Amino acid sequence: MTKTRKPRKNLTFEGLPLVDAAEDVTIAITKKDATESKKKDPASCAAALAGRREFKTDVRVYMTRMYVKDNKKKRWVRFITPMAIQKEIVSFDRGAEFEPGEYKFKAPVESNRLGYRPERGGEDTRTGKGRKPHHITANVRLSARHKMNK
Q: Is the pTM of this model over 0.70?
């Protein structure tokens, strides 16, 4: 967690600036983390407890993003939550156990970075069809978007 990229937009998370991570991190979730965790709580799930133990700082783990507090620079660093953790979160928040193991949280790629806006060509690419409905997984923790200020 040494390098970070500067955000293209001034976003905050829990009152501090938010930046994208520049490097991937791996977190080892232990059986102890899994037994001490709390359901539907991004600050107390097994992945957050493991991150807190390894980074020695506050960690929040949501369905699609993980936030690690950088106390030295007074900011939050944002990572992408791996699909394996997303599945664990859904099953854990709905009553199953969190499976211990090593999980790799990736730094956001260009198209997932804060403030990314794709360049548009001159050609109209609309099909005339409406958007498909977006599925939201029910009975799990809230999205981190509820904590972000734009």
A: yes
Count of domains forming the chain: 1
Residue 73 lies in a domain: yes
Q: Closest Cα partner for 29 from 131, 105, 107, 126?
A: 105
Residue 131 domain flag? no
What is the pLDDT, as a whole number, of residue 6? 52
Give the domain extent around 92. Answer: 4-116+139-149
Please tell me the distance from the alpha carbon of residue 116 to that of residue 63, in angstroms, as a whole number.
Answer: 20
Pairwise CA distance, residues 44 & 65, whole Å? 15
Name beta bridge partners: 128. none
Helical (H) or strand (E) element with 16: strand 16-21
